[in-house]
C-alpha cells in the first residue's frame, strides 16, 4: 500500500499504564476509502487504540500519521479539525433539543461558530436545508422534530452518525456502532454505515461478527494489545490463532456469520 492509498498509519504504537501494556507495538495501515474493522476479545486494547488515535490518550511510544503528516503531538481539537471524527465525541449532546437542532449544532461546529442559539433565523435556515439533507441520508426525516431523548435507541445511533457526518469527516471512527441493538436496528445501522462510507474512510471497533463480515474490507484482530492477524474476513475467520484467541466462544459466530 503506497502513501497515497494510506489515510492513517501507526508505527510501533504503544501505550503502557503502570507496568501494564494496553497497546503493544501496533502497526496499523488504513486504506483510503475502505471500511476497516478492529476486532478482538475484551481487553484486547481496541478502545485504547481509538483513544490514542483521537489523542484522548498520549502514546507512550510510537507515531501516528494522517495523510502522511505526523499528528502524534496534536491535541484532540486539532485532530478533529483535520477531519478525524469519532462518533461518540459529538453524539446527541443535547437530549432535550430536536433531532434537527442537534444536526444543526454539528453543522455550526463545522463553521467554527459557537452555539449561537440567538443568531438570526436567516443564518440558521441555511443550515436547515443541510440538516434535512443529512437526516434524509440517515433515514431520520420523519423524526426531524422529535425531541432527541424520545428517539428509539437504534435511531439515536443513526443521529450520532448524522452529527458525525455534519463535521465532514475524512476519516470516521465508529466505536461499537451496533452495541446493545436488536436485529432490526443492527441491520439498519449496518446498511447505513455501508451507505455513508461512499467517498469516506471508516475505522470501526465492532463486536458483532455479522456486521464485520458483511461490510468490512479489512479486519485487524487485536489480542492483548498486539495485532494477531489482519486481512479480509474470509482469511481472518479461518486463522487458527484468531479462533484460539476467542477460545471457541466466537468460533461458532465466525463460522456461522454467512
Description:
With about 260 residues, this protein is α/β, with parallel strands linked by helices. The chain has 2 domains: about 1-85 and about 170-258, P-loop containing nucleotide triphosphate hydrolases (Rossmann fold); about 95-170, no CATH class. Helix content is about 35%, strand content about 25%. It contains 10 helices and 11 strands. The protein has helices at about 45-55, 75-80, 100-110, 120-135, 155-165, 185-195, 210-215, 235, 240-245, 250-255, and strands at about 5-15, 20-25, 30, 35-40, 60-65, 70, 85, 170-175, 200-205, 220-225, 225-230. It has a 6-stranded mixed sheet. The longest helix is centred in the middle third of the chain and has 17 residues, at about 120-135. The protein is globular and about 55 Å long. The two termini are about 30 Å apart. The mean pLDDT is about 90.
In a few lines, what is going on in this structure?
This protein is an alpha/beta fold and 258 residues long. The chain has helices at 46-53, 76-81, 99-111, 121-137, 153-166, 183-196, 209-215, 233-237, 240-245, 251-256; strands spanning 6-17, 20-26, 29-31, 35-39, 61-66, 69-70, 84-86, 171-175, 201-205, 218-223, 226-231.
Amino acid at each position: 500500500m503506497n502513501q497515497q492509498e494510506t489515510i492513517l498509519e501507526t508505527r510501533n504504537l504503544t501505550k503502557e499504564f503502570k507496568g501494564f501494556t494496553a497497546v503493544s507495538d501496533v502497526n496499523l495501515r488504513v486504506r483510503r476509502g475502505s471500511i476497516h474493522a478492529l476486532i478482538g476479545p475484551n481487553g484486547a486494547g481496541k478502545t485504547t487504540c481509538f483513544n490514542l488515535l483521537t489523542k484522548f490518550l498520549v502514546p507512550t511510544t510510537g507515531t501516528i500519521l494522517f495523510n502522511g503528516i505526523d499528528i502524534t503531538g496534536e491535541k484532540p481539537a486539532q485532530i478533529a479539525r483535520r477531519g478525524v471524527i469519532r462518533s461518540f465525541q459529538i453524539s446527541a449532546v443535547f437530549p432535550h433539543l430536536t433531532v434537527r437542532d442537534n444536526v444543526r449544532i454539528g453543522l455550526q461546529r463545522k463553521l467554527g461558530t459557537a452555539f449561537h442559539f440567538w443568531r438570526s433565523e436567516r443564518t440558521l435556515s441555511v443550515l436547515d436545508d443541510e440538516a434535512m439533507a443529512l437526516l434524509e441520508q440517515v433515514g431520520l426525516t420523519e423524526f426531524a422534530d422529535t425531541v432527541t431523548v424520545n428517539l428509539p435507541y437504534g435511531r439515536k445511533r443513526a443521529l450520532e452518525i448524522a452529527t458525525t457526518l455534519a463535521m465532514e469527516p475524512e476519516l470516521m471512527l465508529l466505536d461499537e456502532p451496533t452495541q446493545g441493538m436488536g436485529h432490526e436496528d443492527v441491520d439498519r445501522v449496518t446498511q447505513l454505515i455501508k451507505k455513508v462510507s461512499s467517498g469516506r474512510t471508516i475505522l470501526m471497533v465492532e463486536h458483532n461478527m455479522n456486521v464485520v463480515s458483511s461490510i468490512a474490507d479489512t479486519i485487524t484482530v487485536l489480542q492483548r494489545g498486539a495485532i494477531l492477524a489482519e486481512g479480509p474476513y474470509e482469511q481472518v475467520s479461518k486463522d487458527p490463532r484468531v479462533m484460539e484467541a476467542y477460545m471457541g466462544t466466537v468460533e461458532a459466530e465466525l463460522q456461522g456469520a454467512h
